[in-house]
Specification:
heterodimer; A: 390 residues; alpha+beta; Butyryl-Coa Dehydrogenase, subunit A, domain 1; Butyryl-CoA Dehydrogenase, subunit A, domain 2; 3 domains; 4-stranded mixed β-sheet; 4-stranded antiparallel β-sheet; 11 helices; B: alpha+beta; Butyryl-CoA Dehydrogenase, subunit A, domain 3; 3-stranded antiparallel β-sheet; 53% helix
Chain lengths: 390, 355
């Protein structure tokens, strides 16, 4: 056990730090869930690509740098340290990307990964349906295989919902029922589709903050080539679970994000130390410890994976831990700001331009998205502890 | 950067696990309690396996292993609620003796002598035998005293497998004076808290496992109670707390060596996380067990009572939270991303601590 960076890792950190210092926009970008903000975030992705920082863990042929997991964590630390913009491409690079790497054909990887890393194609995810939320195996959207003039297509029919980024994104991925007689987890296939295809309608849904961060997607006789299927027909559930594993495991929320929030919370406390209670002080210290624990757990897992280990159902613990930590930190911040807690960015009096309030609202989504924490607790109980299914 | 244990450490852990789970079963522990005894009489076996001399250098007859390896042993000892004072003797006293009195350290490793620790943060010596010697930390001195001369007085505690003695020494052989005492006392306190935290991890895992087993066996409404989400979610929460306490304990062990400025902070984090996980697991376990968990007959109480005892040893939650408070607010610890691990060229705690 050696908990110290190597000289090579230090040099890598310096390179990232210097590049970000020269390129990160001086002013925060507007929300990526607004039309203008989305395009500015896309521009930022292109800037990242110009320095080959689109997705550092990918091989160079797909626009990456072939970095290992420790280097990825270093990159993320520097990224949050520099307060660089949110990754508008996160559904693609953190979720679909690793899935393509594992299940995609060479053609699919060459076709989809480079524009994903470059921000030229931004991805939305399309898992949930109106009657398939936590019970994702209940999905009913269909993909029917048809042959037209010797070319094979899937005809998509149905409806997806809570599709993050779908309002402004270019492509979507999700699972569809390819076997009409199938039930539950069987007969599903993983399909990629352009959001501007004929027969696809997007209806934006305004989130708690008023912006259209997600949408409903309606499919009405939308045709996509069979080559847009990832993996085998009927393998969709298996692939989707692997994607969910990446999501819950390492990739979606790197520890740097929460360490940055904990650092801001300590600063907020310091500015208000003379008027808040000792209990609040302990909440602040606990936030520091828990953000640190999440970082330690991530490096511990990364080391294990690099030594040949596999990530398993314990990934569900990560999702519970970071989402509940994020909510607790923002709750504490809200409790410190007193009468100014309700002020939004449009007020000159607002604390940190309303960022704590925005963050608190978003933190309430954390225990819900990427599989609710109730579902995660079921997974832990059944797969890590071996308790019987109901 | 490598957060993995060495193969040696894992092999020794596996050996200790196999031995302890065979030797120190709940049946054996219950037998001891029924007979009014708290002694497993297994010290010579622990010596034989090298566990007592684990942290003593090889030239002095030990295994010359490191704190990270001992953490794994302490977890295993916790998992079976072992009554022997392995952590006191092998984890705290032995590595200090190795630097003070190599002959005595060799005798400890070989089982001819046994030295336990009395410290302001560990005032009630556990499992003291008349033939033991006590490494004693007082205000301005560190010394050795024979148990027979220690004026030991029995103190009753809730854990039937701990035997507590309050020592009242008038005369001890001085081992260190002046500034060295503070250094030694701090080393003792850090190792004591670290290995106690590791023991708590083991106890936590054991309580989760026994609750899981009970939830699979016990039927109500015609099904195993473990099918109910209310029960599942209690146990998943306990498991998650354990998963996030463990790396904090391992990191504290890996950075203890060299007594860098962050050691105390890392140990504080380890102890807080382990205590919180253990107390939560104990309360969860008794809830999952229902009425049977509130009896003297079920195994659970032996583990739960050990947790209550260890929670306050070598610094309780408040003591360690004050340490975190000092680091964060007084010393203005560098926070945020990229402040967790040191860079290659930097001794921990110098650049990191200022800002």
């Amino acid at each position: 056990m050696r908990l110290r960076y190597t000289p090579e890792q230090d040099r890598f950190r310096q390179e990232v730090r210097q590049w970000l210092a020269e390129h990160v926009p001086a002013e925060p970008l507007p929300s990526l869930d607004t039309p203008g903000g989305f395009e500015l975030h896309r521009d930022w992705e292109r800037t990242l690509k110009s320095g080959d920082w689109g997705m550092v863990t990918w091989p160079s042929e797909y626009g990456g740098r072939g970095c290992d997991l420790i280097e990825w964590l270093i990159f993320e630390e520097e990224y949050y340290r520099a307060e660089a913009p949110l990754r508008v491409s996160q559904n693609g690079i953190f979720l679909l990307g690793p899935t393509l790497m594992e299940f995609g054909s060479d053609e699919q990887k060459s076709r989809f990964l480079p524009p994903m890393a470059a921000g030229d194609e931004i991805w939305a995810q399309a898992w949930s349906e109106p009657n398939a939320g936590s019970d994702m195996a209940a999905i009913r959207s269909m993909a029917t295989r048809v042959n037209e003039d010797g070319e094979e297509f899937y005809v998509l029919e149905g409806q997806k919902t809570w599709s993050s980024r779908a309002v402004f994104a270019d492509w979507g991925f999700g699972i569809f029922r390819t076997d009409p007689d199938s039930k539950r987890h069987r007969g599903l296939s993983f399909i990629l589709f352009p959001l501007d295809a004929e027969g696809i309608t997007i209806r934006p849904i305004r989130q708690l903050d008023g912006d259209a961060g997600f949408a409903e997607i309606f499919f009405d006789n939308a045709k996509v080539p069979v080559a847009n299927r990832l993996g085998d027909e009927g393998q969709g559930w298996h692939i989707a679970m692997a994607t969910a594993g990446f999501e819950r495991g390492l990739m979606l929320r790197s520890p740097a994000r929460f360490q940055k929030t904990a650092e801001r919370l300590v600063d907020l406390y310091r500015q208000n130390a003379d008027r808040v209670s000792p209990a609040t002080r302990e909440h602040v210290l606990q936030a520091y410890l828990d953000a640190e624990a999440y970082c330690l757990n991530t490096y511990y897992t990364a080391s294990r994976l690099m030594a040949g280990g596999k990530i398993g159902s314990e990934a569900s613990c990560n999702k519970i831990f970071w989402s509940e930590l994020d909510r607790a930190m923002h709750r504490t911040a809200m409790s410190i700001m007193g009468a100014r807690a309700e002020l939004t960015e449009k007020n000159t009096d607002s604390v940190d331009s309303g960022r704590w309030l925005d963050g608190y609202m978003f933190s309430l989504a954390g225990p819900i998205y990427a599989g609710t924490n109730e579902i995660q607790r079921n997974i832990i109980a059944e797969r890590c502890l071996g308790l019987p299914r109901a | 950067m490598d957060f993995n244990f060495s193969q040696d450490e894992l092999d020794l852990r596996d050996g200790a696990r196999e031995y302890l789970r065979g030797r120190c079963t709940p049946e054996v522990l219950r037998g001891l309690v029924e007979n009014g005894s708290a002694s497993l009489d297994s010290w010579s076996e622990l010596v034989e396996m090298g566990l007592v001399g684990f942290l003593i250098p090889e030239p002095a007859g030990g295994l010359g292993m490191s704190d990270t390896g001992f953490v794994l042993l302490a977890e295993e000892a916790g998992y079976v609620a072992m009554p022997e004072p392995l952590i006191d003797v092998a984890g705290v006293a032995a590595p200090l003796l190795a630097g003070l009195d190599a002959d005595l350290a060799a005798q400890v490793a070989g089982g001819e002598a046994r030295v336990v620790t009395a410290h302001p943060l560990n005032p009630y010596v556990n499992q003291l035998k008349p033939s033991d010697r006590i490494l004693l930390f007082a205000d301005n001195a560190a010394g050795l005293v024979d148990a027979a001369d220690a004026g030991a007085e029995d103190v009753a505690g809730i854990d039937p497998l701990r035997r507590l003695s309050k020592v009242c020494v008038s005369d001890a052989t001085t081992l260190a004076t002046g500034a060295e005492v503070g250094v030694l006392a701090k080393r003792a306190a850090l190792r004591g808290a670290l290995f106690t935290a590791a023991e708590l991890l083991g106890l936590t895992a054991a309580m989760i496992d026994m609750s899981k087993n009970y939830a699979v066996e016990r039927k109500q409404f015609g099904v195993a109670i473990g099918t109910f989400q209310a029960v599942k979610h209690h146990l998943s929460t306990a498991f998650t707390k354990l998963e996030f306490a463990r790396p904090a304990v391992y990191r504290a062990a890996a950075t203890l060596k060299g007594a860098d400025e962050r050691s105390a902070l890392h140990v504080a984090h380890a102890k807080i996380a382990a205590v919180d996980a253990a107390i939560n697991a104990a309360e969860t376990a008794i809830q999952v067990h229902g009425g049977i968990g509130y009896t003297f007959e079920a195994d659970l109480h032996l583990f739960m009572k050990r947790v209550w005892a260890l929670a306050g040893l070598w610094g309780d939650r408040n003591y360690h939270m004050n340490e975190v408070d000092r680091a964060v607010f007084d010393q203005r610890l560098k926070l945020g991303p990229a402040a967790t691990f040191p860079s290659a060229g930097n001794a921990l705690g110098t650049e990191e601590l200022g800002r």
